[in-house]
Amino acid sequence: MHPFRQAVRTELAHIHAQGRYRTFTRLRKQSDRFPVFELDTDDGPRDVTVWSSNDYLGMGVHPAVIRAAAAALQARGAGAGGTRNIAGTSDLHDALEAELAALHQKQAALLFTSGYVANQAALTAILKSLPDWQVFSDSKNHASMIAGLKGAKASVHVFAHNDMHDLQARLRAAPPEAPKLIAFESVYSMNADIAPLARICDLAAEFGAMTYLDEVHAVGLYGKHGGGVAERDGVLDRIDLIEGTLAKGFGCMGGYVAGDADVIDFIRSTAAGFIFTTALPPATVAAALASVRHVRGDSARRARLFERAAKLKAKLDAASLPRLPSDSHIVPLHVGEAALCREVSRRLLEEHAIYATPINYPTVPVGHERLRLTPTPLHTDKMMDQLVQALRAVLPAGLSVAA
Question: Could you say which of 140, 248, 313, 315 is catalytic?
């Protein structure tokens, strides 16, 4: 047997033994019934209430978004036909980039095929621009940010999560004349907490560092117009580069970066993940454009999301269920062991027609396994009560007190 095949079998056996093996659940999203999906079973389709979608506002099923996608598909076909350098750009791509730049009060924006690609490509391009880059990265940063940092020969300093004293100490110890960049997120989706953006900006100014902010779990949701936590906290003008996604709050697909025009032009001209990747399809871009335009003016939808999140937290607390602290719209529930987390998720689905994804290592540390619940404006009180009742039935008694 080839050594690689043996290594594959050994690693898969190890993943199975740890209870970390992941399987796909065959769910069909329904545009007229979200967040109710159809689950394929041996006995035919079954309705399931989904509590783990990243379509935080339900914009993926909004009629205006669906109409825009259908019209673009009919008029322009299924694919972009190549990269924008090869096949040309379109008015839809240009319009969406302009809309995203305006959302974040920046001069320009650049589309990528996903948020992962946006982070990886943009950070690698930036960090190849100069020698001796010193990067300060939050310990809970997305894997895509870490991939971008590893793609260049920068010196990376990982600071303790949201710990401004640690960040300050590491900045102070770095070579004073070296170019510096602080890479961090706003909403950390597994911890459900939010970074102190103003304090990070203060430290960036003190030590002459650029700021690179990942807002993927916040765009569309926070701020007066959905510009993210940076808009909410009044620090948009102090953030050099903002990376976001079209796949969560906007309910579509794709990623982007926004910033000064010359920086965005530099990334466009040098980032391999942009240059060598086929552009987003016209229907996807049209849907995202319609979604961003709608969300920017729909403050009621944002308010409803946060009201729903607060209501779910209150119901879980009233039932003495092990909810973890949350400063955001995300509601994590502690389980604490990988195999148990998967079993709890399985029983919720099979016995109660509720889908809640188990979050295990390496997404969270061993011993911190959890369910990650994401209420949307379309989840009802009845759905919440059913979830609470189901959780009380499937969680061990020892987990009835918050961890």
Answer: 248
pTM over 0.85: yes
Phi, psi of 382 (to 5 degrees): -60, -45
CB 148 within 8 A of CB 214: no
Q: What is the largest CA-CA distance in the chain?
A: 67
Q: 3-state SS string over the chain? A: CCHHHHHHHHHHHHHHHCCCCCCCCCEEECCCCCCEEEEEECCEEEEEEECCCCCCCCHHHCHHHHHHHHHHHHHHCCCCCCCHHHHCCCHHHHHHHHHHHHHCCCCEEEEECCHHHHHHHHHHHHHCCCCCCEEEEECCCCHHHHHHHHCCCCEEEEECCCCHHHHHHHHHHCCCCCCEEEEEECEECCCCEECCHHHHHHHHHHHCEEEEEECCCCCCCCCCCCCCHHHHCCCHHHCCEEEEECCCCCCCCCEEEEECHHHHHHHHHHCHHHHCCCCCCHHHHHHHHHHHHHHHHCHHHHHHHHHHHHHHHHHHHHCCCCECCCCCCCEEEECCCHHHHHHHHHHHHHHHCEECCEECCCCCCCCCCEEEECCCCCCCHHHHHHHHHHHHHHCCHHHCCCC
> pLDDT of 241-276, one tens digit each?
999 999 999 999 999 999 999 999 999 999 999 999
Taking only the tens place, the pLDDT of each residue in 224-239 is 999 999 999 999 999 9
Residue 248 known to be catalytic: yes
